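Question (not urgent): is this output format expected?
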Amino acid sequence: MLPLQIKPDIYDVGVQDWAVRDFHGYKTERGATYNSYLLMDEKITLIDTVKAPFAEELLRNISQVTPLESVDYIVINHVEPDHSGAMPALAKACPNAKFIISMAGKNEAIQHYGDIFDFTVVKDGATLNIGKRNLTFAMMTMLHWPDNMATYCAEEKILFSNDAFGQHYATSKRFDDEVDQGELFYEAQKYFANILWPYAKLIGKALAKLGGLDIKLIAPSHGVIWRSGIADILACYGKWGQGVCDGSLVIAYDSMWGGTEKLARAIARGAQRAGIVVKVFKLSQTPNSTVAAELFTASGLLVGSPTLNSGMMPSMGSFLTYIKGLAPVGKKAASFGTFGWAGGAQKDMEEMLGKFVPEVLPGYQCKWTPQTVNLDAAEQFGYDFAQELLEKNQNSADCQC
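Got this back:
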């Protein structure tokens, strides 16, 4: 049986990774895909490869369409191993193939796999004729590695976008209009938040580069292929690149004996009564990447931890380290928690928040188990913090995202 044709003589030969649940700290509850596309033309061309454990499956998919030795070109848009892991297997199975790659990509590939490939290095704007089709290469430097590029086929109006516009989302259906739209856009936002957020300021330049292209399909290297929602996902990327603050509040906390949890619930009640959307996450039960996806569009962050060994709980340290790496902007933040004979968590959290949040507001803490007076104060604290968010300029998204 032939692989799916996304257009005549263009085959989806990648793989679904139904089982993966961790992508270097990004929890992929819906799995992932490693997309690869085979273009049948005078010069048979493969665009992107797959993660190394799936190399055999990729080779089988290609061989169902054409003999492996007939492949002429293999385009490597990005050398991160989830996209390039099958390169050594392809070099062996496709001895006549030239690997089309950026200079940064070439250097990275040699570092990963050794100097075993027949490389042709391309620059920004270079075009490769493969017969009735032409492939043009657009450098997308630092979205999200130095080597990233996209490949555009003008004749088919397809953008092979690699990481851009992707989702960690394994489905049996391959197009955006065939899957649940809520799931799809959530996974697209989660992907942006956890992969591209640190480089969001570069998105506008990338979109400008793509703006003059006539695009009928966006074929990313993760997730489903965009055909009906292209305008929506482009609009989302435009807003996400500028920074969206929708007025909501994320509360992330952990607790030992329930005291900090009681404060979190009281703070949430107070914020709700101010009229804002509140989302509460216990860090021992929620992946950091899931909280990051919600914080991405929120206006405020409250973090809570009891004092453990004169500092914050390890789960809070892990979360704040993860969020710091994503370089969030435009958020207000504060901390809260309980302590016993001595504090420390509050100081730790405020210091860590100060490394990546421009505006850290005074927090709230109390000793031992919160009593009624403490819970009342915590509720007022939540209400007052919500009022701070309501006073901010709110930049609500008006697209599907």
